[in-house]
Amino acid sequence: MIGNAASDMILALACGWLILAHRNHRPGLALAAMLIGVAATFGVLHYLGADLLAGAHRFASLVSMAAAFPLLAFALRWPQDPVAASPAGAVRAALLLGGVGVGATVLGVAPWAPAVALISALVVELTVFQHPNMRGIAGGTLLALGMAASAWGKSAPFSTVVILHLCLAAALLLLASANNQRTVAGI
Questions:
Q1: What integer pLDDT is reported at residue 186 of this predicted model?
Q2: Over 62-96, what HEC string results?
Q3: d(Cα 156, Cα 160) in Å, to the nearest integer?
Q4: Could you give the angle at the alpha carbon of 61 between the alpha carbons of 58 and 66, nearest 5°?
Q5: Separation between Cα atoms, residue 22 and residue 86, nearest integer Å
Q6: Which of 24, 70, 98, 118 is the most interior residue, by most CB within 10 Å?
Q7: So what's the pLDDT on residue 185?
């Protein structure tokens, strides 16, 4: 459990840095990082023994899959769109996506949030390969590896949770950096 907590801490710190670095000029990206960071912070506390926070960690992870991943994909794919570029647009999108994800799960459609996260990752991959640079390709690859580890689940001979957290942390930093370079260049 210490490995899970440490990797969640790294993910939370990466998300914190993204929030601070992008909150003023890329609110969609910053809000996606905040939603993922909240889940990671609850994860740190949960894995360090605060069992009362296990439900909060699961809920924040659900909202992260249902809202943060699509918002991240949108912010990287269409950085000038109001959903990605305006705080109000980002918040509206996150509330709508998170609400639909929670509602679908409550209604028994449990695969909804993971499917939305996977589709979002595919949009990120498409974006990375349409606007290739080394950081973007590395970030996209790490995002795919993290998703694959998560899908592998408990049957793996290694901690897929740690792999997911570390790959996601590195992917977020690399993708934000690559996308920032693309946005600055006007591509």
A1: 46
A2: HHHHHHHHHHHHHHHHCCCCHHHHCHHHHHHHHHH
A3: 7
A4: 125
A5: 12
A6: 70
A7: 44
- Tokens for 70, please give them: 């699509």
Render pLDDT for 130-187 as a digit per residue (tens, 0 to 9).
Answer: 888 899 999 999 999 988 888 777 666 678 889 999 999 999 999 999 876 555 444 4
| Whole-angstrom distance, CA of residue 91 vs CA of residue 86 | 9
CB count in 10 Å sphere of residue 131: 16
* 77 pLDDT tier (thresholds 50, 70, 90): very high
Decide if pLDDT at 103 tops 60.
yes
Look up residue 54 and give its amino acid. Answer: A
CA separation for the pair 171, 60 (Å, rounded): 20
Place of tokens 């969640």: 8
Contact 164, 129 (CB under 8 A): no
Report d(CA 3, CA 71) in Å as an integer: 28
Measured CA to CA, the distance from residue 184 to residue 178 in angstroms comes to 10
